[in-house]
Amino acid sequence: MPKSKNTFSSWRHRVAQRAVHAGWAWVQRTGSVTAERPGRFHFGSIGEATRLAFPLGTVFGEPWIHLGSHCIVGEQVTLTAGLMPDLDLGPDPILSIGDGVVLGRGSHVIADTTVTIGSDCYFGPYVYITSTNHSYDDPHEPIGKQWPRMEPVSIGPGCWIGTGAVILPGARIGRNVVVAAGAVVRGVVPDHAVVAGAPARVVRRWTPAEGWQPPLRTPAPVPIPDGVTPEQLAALAELDEESAARLAQLDAEA
Questions:
Q1: Alpha-carbon distance values, 47 to 14, 71, 104, 167 (Å)
Q2: Which is nearest to 148 in space by CA: 185, 183, 184, 110?
Q3: Residue 45, Cβ neighbours under 10 Å: how many?
Q4: pLDDT score, position 195
Q5: DSSP conformation class of 214
Q6: Could you tell me if 174 and 133 are in contact, meaning their C-beta atoms sit under 8 angstroms apart?
Q7: For 81, phi and psi rounded to 5 degrees?
Q8: What GO molecular functions are on record for this protein (predicted)?
Q9: How many CB atoms are located within 10 Å of the residue 59 CB?
C-alpha cells in the first residue's frame, strides 16, 4: 500500500528549504570581499569591481598581495604571501595579479617568493600555483624537515590554465598560453603555445611565419557581426532555448 503523503510536513519542508537557500545566498553576498567591503583583510591593493567569493580559502600575507581590477576569485580559493602569517616581507609585492583575472573555485596560489599573474588570465577550478617546493638533498633527514627551495613564478597575460593544472616553482609561462587540464608545468613556456602532460611539453605552437603547428583541427569561431546589440543576442538565446524545447517535445512524441 502506498504511504499517505503528509501535505503539511511537505509544505514546511519547502518553506524551510527556501529559507535556507535564501539565507545562504545572503551570506555569500555579505561575506564576499571587495575594495569597498574588504572586511578584516588589508590587501596591498584591490582594484575596482574585483570580488573574492565567499566562502574564502586560506588568505594571509595580504599586505603583500596586489589584486587588479575586474578580477573574479572563486569560492575556497587560497591566496598566501610568505611562508606563514605575520611575517615582514619587505616593501615589494609578493603576489601580483593583473586586471581581469579569473581564479576558479578551489584554486591555490602559494607565493612564498614572487608570483606574478598577467592580465586577462583564466584559471579553471583546482589549479595549484606555488613558488616553493620541498628539497630532499639529505637522504637521512625527513623531507618535511629540510629547508624548501623557492623560485619566482610568472604567468604572462591572456593565458588559459585548465582544471587541476600544477604550476611549479621557477615556471615562466609566456603570453596567450594554453595549459591543458592536469598538466604539471615547470621551466620556460614560449608565447602562443599549448602545453600538456606531466611534465608538460609543448604540443602546439603559433608563430607568425607558420601559424599554428600542428594545424588546428577545428574551424575558427565566427565573430559576432558589427552592430549586433546585447538585446538581439539575448533574443537569439531565447529562440535557441525554445527550439531545443520543441525538439525535445517532438522526440518524446515520436
A1: 40, 8, 18, 25
A2: 110
A3: 15
A4: 98
A5: S
A6: no
A7: -125, 125
A8: O-acyltransferase activity
A9: 19
Q: Kindly state the cell numbers that stand for 119.
A: 592580465
Cell numbers 511537505: residue? 10
Per-residue model confidence as pLDDT tens for the chain (254 residues):
555 555 556 878 888 888 999 998 898 888 899 999 998 999 999 999 999 999 999 999 999 999 999 999 999 999 999 988 888 889 999 999 999 999 999 999 999 999 999 999 999 999 999 999 999 999 999 998 999 999 999 999 999 999 999 999 999 999 999 999 999 999 999 999 999 999 999 999 999 999 999 998 888 788 888 888 888 878 877 776 666 667 667 666 66
> DSSP label at 166?
E
Q: Does residue 134 have an active-site annotation?
A: yes
Query: What's CA 242's distance to the chain center, in Å?
Result: 32
pLDDT at 131: 96
The predicted structure's pLDDT at residue 139: 94
Helix (H) or strand (E) holding 237: helix 230-253
* Residue 204, C-beta contacts closer than 8 angstroms, at least 6 positions apart: 193, 194, 212, 213, 214, 216
Task: Check 13, 21, 42, 134 and give the catalytic one.
Answer: 134
CA dihedral of residues 118, 159, 186, 166 (deg, nearest 10): 100
Alpha-carbon distances, residue 148 vs 136, 142, 155, 169 (angstroms): 9, 12, 22, 11
CATH superfamily of 7-221: Hexapeptide repeat proteins (2.160.10.10)
User: Cα(99)–Cα(69) distance, rounded to whole angstroms?
Assistant: 5
d(CA 162, CA 104): 10
Q: What is the spatial distance between Cα 48 and Cα 222, in angstroms, rounded to a whole number?
A: 32
Residue 77, SS3 per DSSP? coil
